[in-house]
Amino acid sequence: MDADAIAGDLTTVLYTPDQIRERVGELARDIDRDYADKDVLLVGVLNGAVMVMADLCRAMQSHCEMDWMAVSSYGSGTKSSGVVRFLKDLSADIHDRHVLVVEDIIDTGLTLNWLLSNLTSRGPASLEVAAMFRKPDAMQTDIDCKYVGFDIPGEFVVGYGLDFDGKYRNYDGLAILDPRVYN
Ligand code: XMP
Ligand code: MG
């Protein structure tokens, strides 16, 4: 769906589909360059990363494998609880693999922090992060994210995979959700 379809629920459109597509292309070129001499395993974090994973891997010119994991830290609210639940583990053994975690958004960073220590314990050859969006003002942990699409304000956003209570995930841009919707 496009912004017009949900205009009444949004306060500000931050990025249009064109802007997102262009930035994803740039990230793909960086990743192609950095992994030119190694096989990369893209690990997507469900459900939010579905859109960025689908676009990023198709914008890449090198081979990549894909795997998925699912964690939950939000329930149906808009604040990170810091308590992470493991909903689905990887299918692949990542020992000695070059792993690139693909995330929709880094907000507090608490979820990713937990995820990275979990993955590190499995002995990957390398472990990096690509996040489409990041809220620098909200981060509560120090995470080294090698590839960042856009740094955004600390408000609750929806679209391009990001949902509120299961909705807006299929909105094709990124926008700030009107607080009226969740208050
Ligand atoms: P943290 O705070 O642990 O975020 O970095 C964990 C997960 O919460 C989701 N998240 C959001 N979802 N709009 C959303 O629709 C947001 O503004 C937002 N901030 C965080 C997201 O799945 C992230 O991976
Ligand atoms: Mg996520």
UniProtKB/TrEMBL annotation:
Gene Ontology molecular-function annotations: guanine phosphoribosyltransferase activity; hypoxanthine phosphoribosyltransferase activity; magnesium ion binding; nucleotide binding
The EC number(s) this enzyme carries: 2.4.2.8
Domain Phosphoribosyltransferase: 19-164
Record carries keyword Cytoplasm: yes
Organism listed in the record: Raineyella fluvialis
Subcellular location: Cytoplasm
Stated name of the protein: Hypoxanthine phosphoribosyltransferase
Top-level enzyme category: transferase
